[in-house]
Fold ABC transporter substrate-binding protein.
Amino acid sequence: MQRTTHRPRLLTRPGVVALAAAVALTAGACAKSEDDASKDTQSPAAAGAEQKVVTPKPGSKTCAIDAYGAEKLDLKNATVGFSQSEKEANPFRIAETRSIRDEAKKRGVKLLTANAQSQFSKQISDVQDLLAKGADLLVIAPLNSDGWDPVLQAAAAKKVPIVTIDRKINATACKDYVSFIASDFVEQGRRAADQMIEATGGKGEVAILLGSAGNNVTTERTKGFKERIAEKAPELKVVFEQTGDFAREKGQQVTEQLIQSKPGIKGIYAENDEMGLGAVAALKGAGKKAGDVKIVTVDGTRNAVQGIVDGWISGVIESNPRFGPLAFQTLETFTKGEEVPQDVIIQDSAYAADNAKSEISKAY
Ligand code: GZL
């Protein structure tokens, strides 16, 4: 399995090139628990890791401060509020928050943070609270795509610009939020399908452990996977789909039901690593051997990449959580009065048997 590496196109507008060229993401140090990571130094591989330049989504429109209706300010003297959506039991969330904290610290920017513990109503009140505490700018990792109007109105009333990362909110770019920075989740689904086709030979019955409902990540990872299967391996049939809520325990429970109802299942596409690791636990509990059922997951956490090394997982598509550098570069460029892209895609790598052992230090 060859790793596919995208070579993204750069937009040619001055402000945007400055952003795209100036911001290079490196594979971060693996994220341990929050407190461990605070003592963590970058792993050698991460320190010298391949620079991943992130770029505006091809054809992306731009946003400037006058059009948005905010005031120029010096980021160094500003307070940034960060709203995290899910509890930091998932390494994706630990790495994501770590990236935001590290970048704020590196830039000497005051950061207020809040974690909604996977409860949307709490995320709405968290953001209201950040505004009340005087956040001049907001970075939001949304739990859900809808239900943001109260917050958007409150932020607009205070002329507090919002940058959204990770999941999309259904609102208007350059009016409700400045910029949306994320992976291409449909492409992640396609790449997962490629790995599943390779692992299964393109024939047999497969199951999907769906992510949580109400966000674009689940819909787009599912869309990409199914499109690719239909296009490249019509004899690979999706016979089971059920949400594991992006959680390991539920992924295990659902897989236990799956192997009871579909004993001949050949592959499992887990829409995040935590559910994929839950599936591994269920298969082990049922007395299966590594490789009996082909598992492909999305995120790029260290535990899942170790699962490839151990033979339980066939492939992992990275969903890069290291939004810090790009989120703050976007805020800096925007508040200086320069244009920023409304849509920015972060490049994701991938792991399979040919690179899991050698590249596991880049996992988070
Ligand atoms: C993807 C992110 C997803 C991760 C899951 O950007 O929103 O949410 O893939 C997490 O691990 O629950």
In short: The CA atoms of residues 291 and 312 lie 5 Å apart. Confidence is low (pLDDT under 50) at residues 1-18, 20-54. DSSP finds 14 helices and 17 strands in the chain.
